[in-house]
From TrEMBL:
InterPro entries: DNA-bd_HTH_TetR-type_CS, Homeodomain-like_sf, HTH-type_TetR-like_transc_reg, HTH_TetR, Repressor_TetR_C, Tet_transcr_reg_TetR-rel_C_sf. Residues 1-24 are annotated as: Disordered. This is TetR/AcrR family transcriptional regulator C-terminal domain-containing protein. Residues 24-84 form the HTH tetR-type domain. PROSITE patterns: HTH_TETR_1, HTH_TETR_2. Residues 47-66 bind DNA. It comes from Paractinoplanes aksuensis. Keywords: DNA-binding, Transcription, Transcription regulation. Pfam families: TetR_C_1, TetR_N.
Length: 257
């Protein structure tokens, strides 16, 4: 039995399945139908039986392409990664290209939030994941990154996009569970924050001046993401400007652009 744990259990690492005849359904049809179920109900709503019913086909057609649900989820994750566009190095500046890639990652994960909990469970070695990685390497290589710093830089970029999408998806899910609007939730929380104000004067002063609970949460999350992305790219650009040289005595804080 194939283990679903760890990298060795990946659909991309197993030998091709030996089959005879022709399948009634294509892999693309199966994956697209699976994604519709996942978008509607998440991983818990997907089963081989439910997928077969949705497709009007028996399990045999599904097992032609995948051995189990885990393999199907890997195929679906790679399909989502195929929605992310990374410009060619000569088409734009590396900063704009990196922003387009990060924005695409965040948007894809928000369209398909079930992917967030699946990232890292298996290696992302599908054709779309490899194309994404290849284009990021080309973009950052053209910018001047080499070796492991290139890996660190692209990991920072992807982590920011994934982290932002994770936070935003959690907020959306929490609001959905309450059945309330953001304004209603803010009104519920306000008396509690007022009681805490004497013990947290700096936070209270900032809160009254800024009014974060009175703002649209989507706008706040968008602004937070954009601010973080620009500062991340500023830091990478400064690092490149200094030729990636390590700071004297390892004191990064003493470096200036």
């Amino acid at each position: 039995m194939r283990s679903s744990e760890g990298f060795t259990g990946s659909v991309w690492l197993r030998p091709p399945r030996a089959q005879t005849g022709q399948p009634a359904l294509s892999r693309e049809q199966i994956v697209r139908a699976a994604m519709e179920l996942l978008d509607a109900e998440g991983p818990s709503g997907l089963s081989m039986r439910r997928l077969g019913t949705k497709l009007g086909s028996g399990a045999t057609s599904l097992y032609w392409h995948v051995a189990n649900k885990d393999e199907l989820l890997e195929l679906a994750v790679d399909e989502v990664l195929g929605e992310i566009y990374v410009p060619e190095p000569g088409d734009t500046t590396w900063r704009v290209g990196a922003s387009i890639s990060a924005n695409g990652m965040r948007a894809a994960l928000l369209r398909h939030p079930w992917v967030i909990g699946l990232l890292g469970l298996h290696p992302t070695l599908g054709p779309n994941a490899m194309r994404l990685g290849e284009r990021l390497v080309a973009l950052f290589t053209a910018a001047g990154f080499t070796g492991m710093p290139l890996s660190h830089a692209t990991a920072l970029l992807n982590s920011h996009a994934i982290g932002s999408a994770t936070s935003e998806a959690a907020v959306r899910s929490a609001l959905k569970r309450t059945g309330k609007t953001w304004e209603e939730v803010a009104q519920d929380v306000e008396p509690y924050l007022e009681r805490l104000a004497p013990d947290n004067p700096n936070y209270e002063k900032w809160r009254q001046e800024t009014g974060p609970m009175r703002k649209d949460p989507d706008q706040v999350l968008d602004e937070t993401y954009a601010f973080g992305l620009e500062r991340l790219l500023d830091g990478l650009e400064m690092w490149l400007r200094d030729d990636g040289a390590p700071a004297a005595d390892g004191d990064i804080g003493d470096r200036r652009g």
